[in-house]
Amino acid sequence: MTGDQLDPHDADVVRFAEPGARWRSVAYGPILCLLVVFLELGLHSRVHWFGLAFCAVLLAGFVALQVVAGRRHVGVELTDTELREGTEVLPLERIAEVLPERDPDSWDDEEWESARALGELSGVPRRRRGIGLKLLDGSLVQAWARDHRRLRAELAAALRPAGGGTGDGEEETP
C-alpha cells in the first residue's frame, strides 16, 4: 500500500492536523551561528569557535524545549472519531453541532466566544481562531486552529450523518 492510499479498516484517519510547532525552527539558531563563523572566516578575523558552538547548542536546546511544548499543548488533530486540541481529547460523538462563524458585521459577541477553550488552556492560543461547538449535554466549548475555516469544514464533514444527507432532514438531489 502506498502513502496515498488509505486503509479502509483504519478508523483513525487524520482529517486535519496542525503540529503546533515545527522541528525545523530548532535549526535556525545553529544556522545563524554557522553564518557568523563564515563571516569571521571571510573577514580574516579571529573565529570564536567555542562561543559560537556554545550559543548554537544553547539556542537549539531552548528552542527544542519550546517545540516539544508547542507540539504537546498547541497541536490540533482531527480524526474520524476524536478531536485532539493540545492535551485534551474530545470524542466526536459528544459534539452535537458546529456553531456558525461570528458575524463580522455584528457588534455583539456570540455566546460561544466566552466558552471554555479546549486543550486545558486559559483561552484560545495566540494566532489561532476559535470555533464554537455545542456538546450533547448543551454546554458550549471552543475548538481552535490557525486554519480555522478548514477545521470547521472538516469537523462539519466528520459530524455529517453517514447516510450522506445534509443533516437538516432534506435529502440531497444528484
Describe the structure in your own words.
- The chain crosses the membrane at residues 25-43, 49-69.
- Keywords: Membrane, Transmembrane, Transmembrane helix.
- This is DUF3093 domain-containing protein.
- This protein has 174 residues and is an alpha+beta fold.
- Helix content is 30%, strand content 21%.
- The chain contains three helices and eight strands; from the N terminus they run E-H-H-E-E-E-E-E-E-E-H.
- It has helices at 28-42, 49-73, 148-159; strands at 14-18, 76-79, 82-85, 88-91, 95-98, 116-117, 129-135, 140-145.
- The strands form two sheets. It has a four-stranded antiparallel sheet with strand order 1-2-3-4, covered by helices on one side. Strands 5-7-8-6 form a four-stranded mixed sheet, covered by helices on one side.
- A hairpin with a 2-residue loop joins strand 3 and strand 4.
- The longest helix has 25 residues, at 49-73.
- The protein is elongated.
- It starts with 13 loop residues before the first strand and ends in a 15-residue tail after the last helix.
